[in-house]
Amino acid sequence: MKINGSGTMRFATEEDLRSRLEAGDLIETSDQMSKEYILGLKGILTVSADTELMSAPSYTRAARHAPTINAFVSAMAIIQDELGHANIAYRLLEDLGFDKEDLLYEREPHEFKHPYAFDVPLDSWVELVCANALYDRAGYVLLGDIYKNTTFAPWKRGLLKVDREENFHLRHGETWIRKICQSETGREEVQQAVDWMFPMVMEWFGLPDDKKKHKEQLSYGIKGSSNDTLRQIWLGTGVPFCQEVGLELPVHWNESGQKYELDYPFPCQFDEDEKRWLMEEGQIGWDDVIRRWKSRGPSNKEFVDQIQHGHKELQALMEVA
Ligand SMILES: [Fe+2]
Ligand SMILES: [Fe+2]
Q: pTM, whole model, 2 decimals?
């Protein structure tokens, strides 16, 4: 972990931090945080910043398939929003003493912390708008929870804009899906995309609550809801939308448990070449999933290179000069 001027960094004691939180006061600056709080915050902010950032090359690749100039411009507007969201999170990391340039340009592709979903390429306009309806919905749920509940005040203020824009992104996806699903062939193509993208989103929310080891982000109120709760919140709007447009998802509502239950082995293995979940091979362990996440997906290197190559070219030029 690299912290700028870490020699002079002062942390609050755990006791001071807890009494501030118990009084209902929000945290403004790093000297009001304990070391554990700042590490928990760094973890979740890095995931958020990397997720926003890496959606940009992923969406840019798919936007080549835009059916009209207007559609292309809308996709570019969403990508511009995502880069703005990334900037908010990296800027907060910088204010906490972490090196933004290092995070952006000096990390190896496998060191980025975004969800595996953004390493799997989107190959059509249908897959892009499905990503808006499914992936941006995950962003909206996760960031909406932080916006409402976080104890870190600067992030709460920054998320006011992000929350509204994520809502626009998912509506963009829904509008296109409604239109494409009006034809039988269109609906079939959307269904094919959703077949591999829906399990991707379920995995995005992370380990089930009974398996999660690091709980400091919840106990400090950096975020408000657990992984399983957030997964259910996604299902609460994602499932009715898909049903409305005639799409099938492997999930059902359990009336007695008052929650959604998945109808496929969760988690299971993913075939990157076929873009298909190997549901027939049954459930795998979360250790296997974490191993796949850490070795990253098929487009990881290509997408990180797109972010970094201009910076590296200029650096080389300046060194020669
Ligand atoms: Fe975003
Ligand atoms: Fe978004």
A: 0.95
